[in-house]
Design a protein that fits this description.
Length: 1094
């Protein structure tokens, strides 16, 4: 009973408390409702008040515009009183015919020059139709006042109006194309890309004038009202309304009323027409400052504690500095808890040609500054934190790469004199070992007897691993080691080599006595660039470099009795037989000196005086110099577009008298040459494909007219079809008729018998199996048939040796892509067979485009890691790189923008043709290729979703203005000399560091090396800091910098270290593409797509 009473008491108490709580809740609810209503009335009242103010201001502006328009109309009417009324010959042209041209001063001011008029005469209507530009989002078709101003800034709009009225070609193109073939905005975007180099200086000058006027106006206003606070006063920052909210210009009103949302909507779209699309577009108009105005108006209220928390998230979700990116649509990958490092800024003003600019990160160029080391360390820590969730995939990738490597890698022996030389990488080691054995030309019985006596045992000449351990700096791996040049004396008794152990490419000469196996103590020389032995091996010739790494002095070492050395002065350095050649190159002028190694007392003598733009390379052959040159032919006065072959007598007084003997012929260009006792070998490009051919020498050339290559009965070396890369081997033996090529496949070509033997194909463990005829390894990708020249009928059917290939799994094709000016850009595409035009594949586009170097497309088994995951690999041979004719020159100096547009055209092609998904295209560039890729993403933010920049050349303008830096002077020929104003304007226009713009940039992995002497580590560091400062703060968190604090431009090297580096890059791409979760759920951690365990 007592228990019942207690329970009843509890129930009554609970009921009483419930009533009290209900009353309290009702009371609080009424108070909240009243507060909400009051706040809502205040908010609506304030909003209405502000709207009236804006409307009033807009009405005032409209009245001003109307009065200005009426005044302008009266002026035009006055000007046109005496003008005849034009009679249009065709419908649609009358609208442009009556426009009065502007005075000459205005035309010049807005870039309508005679140079521009001449340039547009070369543009055709197909240039606009075929221009490689991605489709634009739909925008309003309501015309603006001038019908051209939509999507243009003030200067561009004025320029476009003048062009339509004074340049008939552009007026006709616009009439033909708009709007039937393209929108007005697209037409003008293409136009300004085409004429960029002609009008950019005028636009910049105009904008600078406006800026100065605005600054002067602010100064005058302060003078008139001294009590007014400056706009940047700290105490006014929180309460002052943004200026843009109450000073809408005519362009702002156009954009607001007509719906022209600009071209900044560059994020990755989720494909849904939701609020995120609309707000992203709003972020690029003048509407956003209105939100800022309301936020400033309400900031003084207790809005964060109001009963409407959603308002606080609307108005205060981002700081003022990042308001433009509040609605960023690019969905960057996972961000670590660690925030990106913020680099310190030290004011520094640069100036050149009357222009000044700020470079607050200039301090980073001092590599001795401890703050730089600290900053790079923090960047490395952030990169590791960013990549922390990729640890498993990196481990898996390294396992895949190592599993495809054979335990021991060796090269086929190369016979030279009585010895066979070869290299191999011992099992489990990083670096190769150079060895040799005596040959056995006298039969196997005598060879066996000599072997038992120890005469044919292996001799280790140079072990890279021992050198790395000797100078080791790493605990896990052997230390950094780079062998620059390695030369064996012609009597096979000495080995001279250059060694870099720091990564800064400062090489030390060392000479090893091969009989004793010891390095000769007094043979070490610092700063050596190149080597060559004299004909009797009694003297070693070498060159040394200055502080800028330019060869400037020729020296010699003479061999004394007892393997001692004496130092002297002589020359250097190209060939090893009769005459040694020394080349000197500066400012597009090429000069070659020779020395007779059998009569070195005569010293150097000049082959020919330097001529601007002319290059030549010599080979000696029994009293003649064979010369590969681009010197002007008799019919021309300028350097030839490609190389041809000439000859002269090898006498000091006759070297200037050249006889042109061989021209390349149609679709063929000469790249290099090599010479032997009975054959001349030419490296050529035939319709863009690399080939070699041999010619029997000496030639009987009696005619004064040059001979076409095809008339000399050349033997074109048979190669696999779709071969992307082929280079010559060392080929030391001058008397041999065997010529070796590599690297994807090693083949010996017998030029006398015109036969070939396959010696080596790379072995990919698990994918290929060794054949009986190949004792060194197998596996060459994308090989289908033997390719030979149409004129080469000497290859018998019995010589059709089989090439091991992976064509069942992967395909390779070479196509041509139309660039902005109609140039056809060669594009090589490698992809899985299953990934044909699916529009879903991720892709990686490679580019370089500088120094006339052919883009490296050699095969590497590491590529299988991406290919087996469905990736497409593409290689763009843009202008500026190597190839046929003027491919190099048309991408250098003033033409450098061609390289960038070629690269973006290839990227757009991959997307538009369905090779790659539009949101899964990545790009990679190394060194000067990094400049190419970084400049491309400055122009097209949204084309690439991920980018890798390896030791990139990014701060080109500042670097080229400093001639004291290594290689700067040599780079003047490639990029131009910014000490010249015309070159400066061009370089500054595309410089990646100087043209970073606001917007959403892709995810970027930037790698650098602290001891890099070619591209300073500060180039990457400054670029990353600038991107973080100027671009979207959300997207820029996916920009990471990884610096190797011990290596140089070419990295650490080493077989297994390479796997770690590549795995890091591939894992970054997978993460940046948003594929990491899919990767974790896939089977790749256990086995690759071929079913082999990793």
């Amino acid at each position: 009973m007592d228990l019942w009473q207690r329970a009843k008491g509890f129930a009554e108490e609970a009921a009483k408390r419930s009533q009290e709580i209900s009353k309290e809740a009702a009371k609080r609810s009424q108070e909240l409702t009243k507060g909400a209503a009051k706040f809502s009335q205040e908010f609506v009242s304030e909003t209405a008040k502000k709207s009236k103010e804006i409307a009033s201001e807009a009405a005032k502006k409209a009245d001003l515009l109307r009065s200005e328009a009426l005044r302008a109309a009266e002026q035009i009417k006055t000007l046109t009183v005496d003008l005849p009324i034009p009679m249009p010959s065709t419908v649609g042209q009358a609208s442009n015919a009556a426009v009065v041209p502007e005075p000459g001063s205005d035309l010049e001011r807005f870039g309508v020059t005679e140079e521009l008029r001449e340039f547009v005469k070369g543009i055709t209507i197909s240039t606009f139709r075929d221009f490689p530009m991605q489709d634009e989002p739909e925008t309003s078709d309501v015309p603006t006042v001038s019908n051209v101003r939509q999507d243009l800034n003030e200067w561009q709009a004025r320029h476009a109006t003048l062009v339509l009225s004074t340049v008939k070609e552009i007026s006709n193109f616009r009439y033909e194309l708009c709007p039937r073939y393209m929108k007005e905005r697209k037409f003008w975007r293409i136009y300004f890309i085409l004429v960029d180099s002609h009008v950019a200086p005028f636009e910049k000058q105009y904008m600078e004038e406006l800026k100065k006027k605005e600054e002067q106006k602010q100064i005058d206003s302060v003078k008139e009202n001294p009590t007014a606070l400056p706009p940047t006063a700290p105490d006014a920052k929180e309460t002052e309304l943004p200026k843009s909210s109450t000073s809408l210009t005519a362009e702002d009103l156009d954009a607001f009323l007509l719906g022209d949302l600009g071209s900044d909507d560059e994020g990755l779209d989720d494909g849904k027409d939701g609020l995120d699309d609309d707000f992203d577009k709003i972020g690029s108009t003048s509407i956003l400052p209105l939100f800022d105005a309301y936020a400033a108006m309400l900031r003084g209220r207790a809005i964060l504690s109001s009963p409407f928390p959603f308002l606080s998230s609307l108005f205060f979700s981002a700081s003022a500095s990042s308001a433009s990116y509040s609605f960023c649509k690019r969905k960057p990958p996972y961000h670590p808890s660690l925030k990106p490092p913020v680099a310190k800024k030290i004011p520094f003003t640069c100036s050149a040609h009357g222009r000044t600019w700020e470079d607050p990160y200039r301090w980073m160029s001092d590599t001795g500054d401890p703050d730089l080391v600290d900053y790079l360390g923090r960047e490395n820590a952030y990169a590791d934190s960013f990549m922390a969730d990729t640890f498993d995939i990196r481990r898996s990738l390294v396992g895949e790469m190592k599993s495809r490597m054979p335990d021991k890698v060796s090269t086929p022996p190369e016979h030279w004199g009585p010895w066979s030389y070869y290299q191999y990488i011992p099992e489990g080691r990083e670096y190769p070992v150079l060895c040799r054995r005596l040959r056995h030309p006298d039969g196997y019985a005598k060879a066996l007897l000599n072997y038992m006596r120890g005469c044919h045992r292996e001799e280790i000449l140079l072990d890279w691993n021992e050198i790395a351990e000797q100078f080791g700096m790493l605990e896990i791996y052997a230390g950094y080691v780079h062998i620059g040049t390695c030369r064996i004396s012609l009597d096979h008794k000495f080995l001279a080599y250059t060694l870099d152990i720091s990564g800064n490419e400062s090489f030390t000469l060392q000479v090893k006595d091969l009989h004793s196996g010891h390095v000769i103590p007094n043979s070490k020389v610092e700063g050596v660039v190149s080597l060559a032995w004299a004909g009797d091996s009694s003297c070693l010739l070498y060159t040394v470099c200055d502080a800028t790494q330019r060869p400037y002095r020729q020296c010699s070492i003479g061999i004394l009795d007892g393997a001692g050395f004496r130092f002297g002065r002589s020359s250097a350095i190209y060939r090893k037989r009769y005459e040694l050649l020394y080349g000197y190159y500066e400012h597009k002028r090429w000069q070659v000196y020779v020395i007779d190694t059998e009569n070195m007392k005569d010293g150097l003598w000049l082959v020919r005086e330097r001529v601007a733009g002319v290059q030549y390379f010599l080979e000696h052959h029994y009293g003649f110099f064979y010369i590969l040159t681009n010197a002007p032919l008799e019919s021309t006065s300028s350097a030839a577009e490609g190389y041809y072959l000439a000859r002269c007598i090898a006498e000091k007084s006759l070297t200037a008298e050249w006889q042109v003997i061989v021209l390349p012929g149609q679709d063929v260009s000469f790249q290099d040459m090599d010479i032997f006792h009975g054959h001349l070998v030419l490296s050529i490009q035939q319709k863009g494909l690399p080939l070699f051919c041999s010619i029997d020498i000496p030639m009987s050339v009696n005619s004064e007219q040059p001979i076409k290559l095809e008339n000399l009965n050349p033997w074109f070396f048979p190669v696999p079809s779709c071969l992307c890369s082929i280079v010559a081997g060392s080929n030391h033996d001058f008397m041999s008729s065997i010529y070796r090529v590599m690297p994807d496949i090693i083949v010996d070509y017998d030029m006398g018998k015109r036969e070939f033997t396959i010696l080596h194909q790379e072995e990919v463990v698990g994918l290929t199996e060794k054949g009986e005829s190949d004792s060194y390894g197998v596996a060459f990708p994308f090989i289908f048939t033997i390719t030979k020249s149409k004129k080469d009928e000497s290859l018998e059917d019995g010589q059709q040796q089989s090439w091991t290939d992976l064509s069942e799994a992967f395909s390779c094709e070479r196509i041509e892509v139309v660039s902005h000016d109609g140039f056809m850009v060669p594009l090589t595409i490698v992809r899985p067979q299953k990934a044909k035009h699916t529009n879903q594949s991720p892709g990686l586009l490679h580019g370089y485009g500088a120094y006339g170097e052919v883009l490296d497309k050699s095969w590497c088994s590491d590529h299988i890691c991406l290919l087996s995951r469905g990736w497409v690999l593409a290689y763009a041979d843009v202008r500026g790189g190597g190839g046929e004719g003027s491919l190099h020159q048309s991408g250098t100096r003033a033409c450098k923008m061609n390289s960038i547009y070629d690269f973006t055209a290839c990227g757009m092609y991959l997307v538009n043709e369905g090779f790659v998904h539009k949101n899964k295209l990545a790009a990679i560039g190394c060194s000067a290729g990094g400049l190419l890729v970084a400049a491309a993403i400055n122009i097209y933010h949204s084309l690439f979703s991920a980018v890798i920049l390896k030791v990139p050349f990014l701060d080109i303008c500042n670097t080229m203005l400093n001639p004291c830096l290594p290689l700067t002077i040599l780079d003047y020929d490639e990029f131009g000399d910014p000490r010249n104003q015309a070159d400066f304007e061009i370089i500054h226009h595309y410089s990646p560091f100087d043209n970073i713009t606001q917007g959403c940039y892709p995810s970027v992995l930037v790698t650098a090396s602290f001891h890099d002497s070619r591209v300073g580590v500060w180039e990457a560091a400054k670029w990353v800091a600038q991107v973080r400062e100027k671009t979207c703060p959300t997207c820029s968190q996916s920009v990471i910098l990884k610096t190797n604090m011990s290596g140089g431009h070419f990295g650490e090297g080493g077989r297994y270290i390479h796997c770690e580096d590549v795995a890091f890059e591939y894992a970054f791409l997978i993460k940046a593409m948003g594929m990491l979760d899919d990767e974790k759920q896939s089977h790749y951690y256990q086995m690759d797509s071929f079913g082999k365990k990793c």
